[in-house]
Design a protein that fits this description.
Helices cover 23% and strands 23% of the residues. The protein is of the alpha/beta class. A four-stranded parallel β-sheet has the order 4-1-5-6, with helices on one face. The longest helix has 15 residues.
Length: 168
């Protein structure tokens, strides 16, 4: 699995809002891969890894706290979308929803927003406030641990815009 932590601002590498967590997150992914044997992590922020001849070696890609417009090269965009359309995996964690967007324009690559289900639009105005999580589908195995009960968390929540096509 290719794991990228790349953050870009105005076409240059930058420190995203979750920069300090990256070493810990990378360590966690490395350990999960070792302990489960489910994947071998390859950590790289080199956009050349998205070229068709390089990306094909992976079964999945993880955008782990990526932020901003990582690349504008049409070949790289086509390669990433083709990778997913061809049945390969994609994992986006936390800031990944703020990938291929940059204030003040949040819809710079709508196809990426369709792929992840939404586009970050307006940052994360909720930053540590208590939020109530309601379980809409208590029968789902993913929600079984909550036994249908609401619960509160304090977290950083993003503001999203749904993208046409698969999202709305």
């Amino acid at each position: 699995m290719l794991i990228s932590n790349l953050s870009m601002r105005d076409g240059k590498p930058a420190r995203g809002s979750s920069f300090a967590t990256i070493p810990i997150c990378n360590y966690a992914f490395e350990q999960m891969g070792k302990r489960t044997g489910a994947y071998e992590p390859v950590f790289s922020d080199d956009i050349e890894m998205f070229r068709p001849e390089k990306i094909k070696q992976f079964d999945a890609i993880c955008f782990l706290n990526t932020v901003g417009v990582l690349f504008e090269d049409p070949e790289l965009k086509k390669s990433l979308l083709g990778f997913i359309a061809g049945g390969k995996g994609f994992v986006g964690i936390h800031d990944a929803v703020a990938t291929f967007v940059q204030y003040p324009k949040y819809d710079q690559w709508p196809a990426f927003g369709q792929m992840v289900g939404a586009t970050e639009n307006g940052g994360h105005p909720w930053n540590g406030e208590a939020m109530t999580i309601r379980i809409d589908d208590p029968a789902s195995p993913l929600n079984a641990a909550f036994q249908g009960r609401e619960f509160q968390i304090a977290d950083q929540a993003f503001h999203f815009s749904l993208v046409g096509g698969i999202c709305g």
